[in-house]
Amino acid sequence: MIEGMVAGGFEPVRDAFAANFERPPAYRDVGASLAVYRHGECLVDLWGGHLDRKGGRPWQRDTLVNLWSTTKGIAAICVALLVDRGAVRYEDKVADHWPEFATAGKADVTIAQLLSHQAGLPGFAEPTSLEDLFDQATCAVRLADQAPLWVPGTANGYHAATWGVLVSEIVRRVDGRSIGQFLAEEIAGPAGADFYLGLVPELDSRVANIIPPEQPVDLSTLELNPAMVLALASPQLDPARANDRRWRAAELPAMNGHGSAQGVARIYAAALSQELLSSPTLEAMTRIAADRVDLVVGFNPQWAMGVMVNGSGGLGPAPKAFGHGGWGGSVGCADRKSGIAIGYALNHMGPDLVGDPRATSLCNAIFICAGAN
User: Which of 98, 94, 5, 104 is nearest to 45 (CA)?
Assistant: First the structure.
């Protein structure tokens, strides 16, 4: 069932990967892949299971799948590359590059505050559907006109969908290309990484359909604060929509990157190498900007520049590991001290909005084997 390889000393990682296919049904992998690099060398390259519950098509090494918010970490690396090239600075005001944004109390919002979920725009105040989200230009206008929910910089609340609209607009205005084109030409292509924002139909045959959780969280049963309402209900996401062609074709850098585990790990490995980002830029990207409980997710993710630092321990025992997980269980992360870069992709979503025991168990095994604790 499990194919691929692990380097000597990383056998426990294979065991942890195989164990995810034997978990209770809510967290049981149907198809998945895992890749781990250290200083550019592939140490773990595993895949197994099937593209659907029927078991008709086996998961392959290059199988692609929608990775939800794992995409945010990749988009953050796109912004970091623009910072590294001097095209934008984290301390710049958003309005320096997007003048229309300087309305309704947002004139002094910085790129850093936007990336670290402190801008006060965790969702759309105007009712917004998934169909609306496909029109990123209109969504950007809505957010430019919208008043923040809190004074920017005084709190942080996970910008689940709006983060992607904001970052996409920044990249377009600074570079001129869409973020999907920038990613393909400047990062994924040079790194040989299977990761796409805006998937062409020719790659559909390699894509595993998302399998929604059997018992998803019922938002109506939760006590939601105003930040949660905006982030989780406007727009309200439907896992099954990820299997639509229109969804795959869109460039939604908060939630619809399609990639393999190898693709995610290669990009994080490239970020660790000084061939993509200089050491000062990587240091700035991973410097904690918001060190408080998040109003939406309910814990302290230690937000840096579009990635979380490992204050919660969800990325294993490496305290300075950084990255981003995705709704349902995927993850991409790295650790500067050990040189480890990780990508984990799967099609069967777990029931939790944040946190998944499968990804955590893999990160634990990987960093323990690497001695990164």
Answer: 5
User: What are the extents of the domains in the chain?
Assistant: 2-369
CA-to-CA separations, 348 to 28, 57, 351, in angstroms, rounded = 7, 15, 10
- In three-state secondary structure terms, 244 is coil
State residue 25 phi and psi, 5-degree precision. -50, -35
Q: What is the mean pLDDT of residues 350-358?
A: 86
What amino acid is encoded at 116 in this protein? S
Query: Side chain identity at 146, as an amino acid letter?
Result: Q
Instruction: Give the count of beta carbons closer than 10 Å to the beta carbon of residue 216.
Output: 15
The tokens 């950084």 sit on which residue?
A: 322
Fold (CATH) for 2-369: Beta-lactamase (3.40.710)
Contact 232, 139 (CB under 8 A): no
State whether residue 249 is helix, strand or coil. helix
Distance (Å, whole) CA 272 – CA 255: 23
> Model pTM?
0.96
Q: Three-state SS for 263?
A: helix
Q: Can you tell me whether residue 320 is helix, strand or coil?
A: coil
Q: How would DSSP label each residue in 39-77?
A: TTEEEEEEEEEBSSTT--SB--TT-BEE-BTHHHHHHHH
Find the angle CA(331)-CA(336)-CA(337) to the nearest 5 degrees.
120
Q: Is residue 332 predicted with pLDDT exceeding 80?
A: yes
